[in-house]
Amino acid sequence: MTIQPRQVLVCQYQNCMARGATELLEQWQARSLPENVELVASGCLGQCNLGPSVQVLPDQVWYCEVKPRHIDLIIEQHLQQNQPVQALLNPRFHWNGVLPRDH
User: Fold this and answer.
1) What is the DSSP letter of 10?
2) Which domains does the chain have, with CATH numbers?
3) Which of 5, 11, 66, 101 measures 20 to 30 Å from 40, CA to CA?
4) What average pLDDT does the structure give for the chain?
5) pLDDT-based confidence at 102, cuts 50/70/90?
6) Are 37 and 81 in contact (CB under 8 A)?
């Protein structure tokens, strides 16, 4: 079984940085990620008022208001078990927890 590579984008633009995105990225970098996952310090993800924002590609899963305490949960539940963390989903993209591919 081939595991599809993933990217975890952590916004590093002004509004997200003002809400703790720099520390969030540092905490992500301190973690052991699954081998198929690449961590990316991204530019603006366009979700400034819900930051810090994290997007997982190619899953098209958007997380909002992510704090360092959420990282281990995202790694374990989403990146290892393929179950997005419902409580952190950005409501602009995931209405009632429905993922884009479920439409």
Assistant:
1) E
2) 6-102 (3.40.30.10)
3) 101
4) 91
5) very low
6) no
